[in-house]
Amino acid sequence: MNKEEQLIMNFRDLFDKMVWLNKSKMEDRLKGYTPSEVHCIESIEKNRDANVTKLAESLYMTRGAISKLTKKLIKKGLIDSYQKPDNQKEIYFRLTDQGKVIYKIHEELHKEFQERDKAIFEQVTGEQFDWMLSFVEKYSRHLDEEIKKQGITIH
C-alpha cells in the first residue's frame, strides 16, 4: 500500500471512529431526529437566508432531497419558511424555538467531543495545523473540480 492509499484509509478509519464514538450520545440526546435533520437544522442556523439551493450545496444533497427534508422539519415544528418583501419568489427557512433547542443540543455535543479530544490537539503546533488545513483545503478543491468534471450537480 502506497502512502496515498494509507492516508485515505487512515482518513476513513479516523472518521469511522469519530462517528462510532459520538453516535450513542448523539442518538440519546437527539432521539427522534435523523442525522440529516440535525445537519439541516445546523445549516439553516449557520447560513443566513438559507434556501433550498444553499442547503443543497452545503449538505451535498439534491434540491429534491432538501425539499422533502425541509417539509419534514416544518411538520415537526423545527423550522418555518418565509419570503422577503422584495422577493416573493424565493422561499427561505429559519429555526423555530424548538429548532433552536435541537441546534443548541447538537452544538453542546460537539463542544463535549472537542473537550474529549482536546489533549491530542494541544500537541499540534500552529505550523502543523496550517499545513494540515492547507492540505485538506487543496484536496477539497480538487474533489470539487472532479465533481464538476463529472457534471454532477448538487443543486
Mean pLDDT: 93
What is the rounded distance between the termini? 36 Å
Q: How many beta-strand runs?
A: 3
Radius of gyration: 18 Å
Give the structural class: mainly alpha
Report the sheet-strand fraction. 5-15%
Largest sheet: 3 strands, antiparallel
Which runs of at least 5 residues are low in confidence (pLDDT < 50)? none
Q: Helix segment count?
A: 6
Summarize this structure briefly:
The chain contains six helices and three strands. The protein has 155 residues and is mainly α.
Characterise this structure.
- Helix content is 70%, strand content 11%.
- The chain is built from six helices and three strands; from the N terminus they run H-H-E-H-H-E-E-H-H.
- The protein has helices spanning 3-29, 35-46, 52-59, 63-75, 97-121, 126-149, and strands at 50-51, 79-84, 87-95.
- It has a three-stranded antiparallel β-sheet with strand order 1-3-2.
- Strand 2 and strand 3 (87-95) form a beta hairpin.
- Helix 1 crosses helix 5 (97-121).
- It starts with a helix and ends in a 6-residue tail after the last helix.
Question: Which features characterize this protein?
Answer:
mainly alpha, three-stranded antiparallel beta sheet
Summarize the topology.
Blueprint: H1 3-29, H2 35-46, E1 50-51, H3 52-59, H4 63-75, E2 79-84, E3 87-95, H5 97-121, H6 126-149
Antiparallel strand pairs: 1-3, 2-3
Helix pairs in contact: 1-5, 2-4, 2-5, 3-4
